[in-house]
Amino acid sequence: MPPNKSHKHVTCQNCLARKDSLFCSMTGDDLDTIESNKSCSYFKKDQPLFIEGSLPRGVFCINDGKVKIYSRGEEGKEQIIHVATSGEIVGFRAMFSGEPYSVAANTLEESNICFISKSDFLNLVDTNSTLRNGILKELSKELADRASFIKNMAQKSVRERLAASLLLLDDIYSEDYINLSREDLANFVGTATETLIRLLKDFKDEGFVKTHVRKIEVLDKEGLIQLAGS
Hints:
Number of domains: 2
Distance between the termini: 51 Å
CATH architecture of the largest domain: Sandwich
Strand order of the largest sheet: 1-8-3-6
CATH topology of the largest domain: Jelly Rolls
Order of helices and strands: HEEEEEEHEEHHHHHEEH
Radius of gyration: 19 Å
CATH superfamily of the largest domain: Jelly Rolls
């Protein structure tokens, strides 16, 4: 029989994604504390980690896979604001504000994700200055990046936003092709799905990208950079 994916466990010591996370510098007792207090679970595609308006219970560390962070408008349409990948810790921002989540998080693909409870994570933050400083830097950088991103995207046409989004996603997916549904890609760009499909066909005809069923391969990165204006 095949292994039960729902009980897949990855130790912190053997986690290849840890080198890219806020836990990268942890060793010894602190790493043992995380290992003894975390749980590790397999998530199917489109499973929620948390929903908008819920109270934070802890943090999610992505060992393998990708997660979309999004909010919903008044009419229920999603706006994807970030795609988190291996090594990223999701959900820690709301714990410091003491307020419910202002966003939601769902898996974009099959993922292996570890969970650390709120109390255990905050205890680590209190006792580990490296982790605390890393979080402060992450929050400061994210605030500046998010403000710059919103400002730039608000001043761009949909065509320019698609070019910028494809560049960002190409970096996130790294060696793989971009693998988002057309609806999710439209929600990332901030446009209607029908408009996204039409523009994506234009990009194919112009040689910027190539599609492999749902997946998107970036062919002309320099061309997209010029089109995006960045």
